[in-house]
């Protein structure tokens, strides 16, 4: 019936019925990677991230706290990533000695580069570019100081991640802090 569009299969084309070969294992992290890419762009939960950070380093009773601005992570099929942030967080607290302290942190810039996936971690390849900086201004006890730092982040260390349809969490290797996204 070669004239009807059917082709004759040779023995080399027939599927193997042998059980001696095991199928190649599926990538156990494939669904999480798919979720990471398909959910992109991700909006960081900057309020939650800032609150957790302030609470971990707090030296007194937190009395006022707010964050403005946004942070976004975009990841494509090649695991090329772009993280952009422009946020200002203000925290006021009462110190044990009866003084108050106000801290304002303005973080701004972008981080761009490519990850590879290794055992469920996003590992930065060479060639990342970062302009992300934070300016910290602290006022208390009649004194004020300002310092600007270059932020270490997703471009420096492997990142573990969990991803569901509605949420993404990144944790840098060696860090207690997580970055929550929605």
Automatic annotation (TrEMBL):
User: Compositional bias (Polar residues) spans?
Assistant: 7-24
The root-end lineage is:
Bacteria, Bacillati, Actinomycetota, Actinomycetes, Propionibacteriales
Name-wise, this protein is Lipoprotein
Domain of life, per lineage: Bacteria
Q: Region (Disordered) spans which residues? A: 1-32, 116-156
Question: What is the species listed in this Swiss-Prot or TrEMBL entry?
Answer: Nocardioides cavernaquae
| Low complexity bias: start-end ranges | 127-149
């Amino acid at each position: 019936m070669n004239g009807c569009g059917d082709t004759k299969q040779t023995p080399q084309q027939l599927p193997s019925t042998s059980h001696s070969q095991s199928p190649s294992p599926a990538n156990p992290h494939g669904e999480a990677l798919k979720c990471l890419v398909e959910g992109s762009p991700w909006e960081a939960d900057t309020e939650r991230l800032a609150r957790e950070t302030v609470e971990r380093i707090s030296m007194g009773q937190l009395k006022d706290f707010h964050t403005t601005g946004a942070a976004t992570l975009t990841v494509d099929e090649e695991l090329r990533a772009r993280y952009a942030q422009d946020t200002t967080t203000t925290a006021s607290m009462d110190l044990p000695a009866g003084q108050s302290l106000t801290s304002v942190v303005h973080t701004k810039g972008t981080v761009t580069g490519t990850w590879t996936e290794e055992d469920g971690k996003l590992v930065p390849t060479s060639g990342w570019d970062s302009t992300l900086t934070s300016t910290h201004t602290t006022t208390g006890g009649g004194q004020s100081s300002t310092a600007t730092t270059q932020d270490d982040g997703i471009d420096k260390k492997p990142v573990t991640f969990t991803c569901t349809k509605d949420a993404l969490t990144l944790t840098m290797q060696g860090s207690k802090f997580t970055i929550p996204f929605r």
